[in-house]
């Protein structure tokens, strides 16, 4: 059975980080679903003229989520998914990192030894969930100050601390997503999908060759 | 007034190429709108349970377009926009490059000396529109054979031939989008927005420093 990953999305999520991660994971043979995080009030504001709900991302791209967080209540998320992923975008990451259900979900995933991944300001949700303390972590430089007291903060493009995978911003999202593919589907799969994406040679791990 | 860009989208468009281009242009101070290309039959198939129309991209990300191509009939597109952009994704690029209205639009933009840009299989639309013949061009390697007879084909990550800007795939989309920002908003703007994106240093133009 294919590994499954859940990626969170909220009003103001960084659309490049969301989309690159979602797409690269699907290329890696992983079943991906997105879950909307937000109050029903904010969902109301996002209705389009035809009555459907979508997220307006940080630079205006409008994305329709696959699920809503309440659809996964009662331990469903933990049963079904092998990884949970938090994208950045200042406003989106704020909503996600201040949501209690997300905090519980992240700490349950971490406790079960499942992959927990965050990029950019999304790393703030790791801290809110109180997980991975003293582990190596990274984030967008703009929120470094909020993380460096509680974590072993690194300025690397992707930081892997066992099952905790963090990264810096839109420009590091390909490397972030490929690290998640490797964690869930193995290094061979990572190598297999890298070529058609046409990454810059400098972004390709040397141990792939 | 801010420069304006129109980016096309169809069922099966590559969501990373679409989203990276859209987002980076907005970061560059460019007003961006997306226009759906397709038959009404295909739009029908994309209705979500709530009745709204969205595009299902190549790896399943669902995006709500800002406009539909017929909204821009009667020369509106040419009046309003300074650039037109075609993303890839095999199915999306097929739909876009086989659409007569798109071909007319692309050749009108080219005739007016406006920016025409395409990435990945999107470069096929350049050929369908019959523009830029004998100019330098690139595309995803998978469609190189369909282009190299009519164009001076290059394997570079981004190829700029006056106002015709082409590129190769999702992994080259940041460089592609930054080249469009430079063409529409100048080199200073390009440099200004590059840092927070956290590109790999090897992806940053040396002449920026």
Automatic annotation (TrEMBL), chains A, B:
InterPro entries: Class_I_gatase-like, DJ-1, DJ-1/PfpI, Prot/Nucl_acid_deglycase. Pfam families: DJ-1_PfpI. Residues 4-182 form the DJ-1/PfpI domain. Its EC number is 4.2.1.130. It catalyses: methylglyoxal + H2O = (R)-lactate + H(+). GO terms for molecular function: glyoxalase III activity. One of its GO terms (cellular component) is mitochondrion. PANTHER family: PARKINSON DISEASE PROTEIN 7 HOMOLOG (PTHR48094:SF12), PROTEIN/NUCLEIC ACID DEGLYCASE DJ-1-RELATED (PTHR48094). This is D-lactate dehydratase. It comes from Meira miltonrushii.
């Amino acid at each position: 059975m294919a590994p499954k990953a859940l990626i969170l999305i909220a009003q103001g999520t960084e659309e490049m980080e969301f989309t690159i991660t979602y797409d690269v994971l699907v290329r890696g043979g992983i079943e991906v679903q997105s879950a909307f995080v937000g109050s029903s009030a904010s969902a109301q504001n996002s209705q389009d003229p035809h009555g459907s709900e979508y997220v307006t991302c940080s630079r205006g791209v409008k994305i329709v989520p696959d699920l809503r967080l309440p659809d996964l209540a009662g331990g469903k998320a933990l049963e079904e998914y092998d990884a949970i992923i938090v994208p950045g975008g200042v406003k989106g990451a704020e909503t996600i990192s201040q949501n209690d259900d997300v905090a519980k979900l992240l700490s349950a995933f971490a406790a079960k030894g499942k992959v927990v991944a965050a990029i950019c300001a999304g790393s703030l949700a790791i801290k809110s969930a109180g997980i991975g303390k003293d582990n190596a972590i990274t984030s967008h430089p703009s929120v470094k100050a909020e993380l460096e007291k509680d974590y072993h903060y690194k300025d690397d493009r992707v930081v892997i601390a066992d099952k905790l995978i963090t990264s810096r911003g839109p420009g590091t999202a390909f490397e972030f997503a490929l690290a998640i593919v490797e964690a869930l589907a193995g290094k061979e799969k990572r190598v297999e999908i890298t070529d058609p994406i046409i990454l810059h040679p400098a972004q390709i791990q040397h141990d792939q060759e």
